[in-house]
Amino acid sequence: MKLIKLSAVAAALAALSFSAAAMTSIADDELSQVSGQDGVSIAGDLNINIGSFKYTDTDATGGSVSFNNIGITGMFVMTVDILNHTAFAGTVGASMVGHGLTAAEANTNLTNLVVNGVYDNASDVVQFAFPAAGQDARLTPSITVGSITMGNSTKSFGSFAMNNIDLQGTKIWMWAH
């Protein structure tokens, strides 16, 4: 029985090596005819714990505040795509219009990105987007802070939570300059 299993594994490995050897290169003109889906999707289940976040005021009156036992939990779905400059301008312009700007105002703001040297109006842009995936609101990220304390005091201001942080529709763009 052991010999049969080893023979099966050897045959499978041989078949893989033969199929890999059968691959041929593709010419540029043939490659230009190939199309496919670009982009990737990422999903995550967050379970982040931060012991504390402390802010200290260093002026003469001093003092500090600590946010203790911070937790970030929940799930998210995100897509990552590469946009050329035309697609980027269209996507950002639509987002600006979605925030209440007119098309002309959106165009002015896009032009300002170029005029102020923030974007060269030629480079590809990486887009991170949280699509409207129709997920149950109970899965969205939440942030909790176990206690808020001041300086040398052990007394707490209490705790707080931000629940069901819905990121659907959010887009983040990244490019080099």
Labels describing this entry:
177 residues; alpha+beta; six-stranded antiparallel sheet; 4 helices; extended
Overview of the structural elements:
The protein has 177 residues and is an alpha+beta fold. The chain is built from 4 helices and 6 strands, in the order ααββααββββ. The protein has helices spanning 2-21, 28-31, 85-98, 103-115; strands spanning 40-56, 64-83, 125-129, 142-150, 160-162, 171-174. Strands 1, 2, 3, 4, 5 and 6 form a 6-stranded antiparallel sheet that branches. β1 and β2 form a beta hairpin. α3 packs across α4 (103-115). The longest helix is centred in the N-terminal third of the chain and has 20 residues, at 2-21. It is extended and about 70 Å long. The termini are far apart. The relative contact order is 0.16.
Series of H and E elements: HHEEHHEEEE
The largest pleated sheet is described as: 6 strands, antiparallel
**End-to-end distance:** 62 Å
Write down the overall mean pLDDT: 83
The amount of beta strand, in percent, is: 25-35%
Q: Indicate the structural class.
A: alpha+beta
Poorly predicted parts: none
- Number of DSSP strand runs: 6
Shape: extended
* Total of helices: 4
Helical content (DSSP H or I, runs of 4+): 25-40%
- How big is the Rg? 26 Å
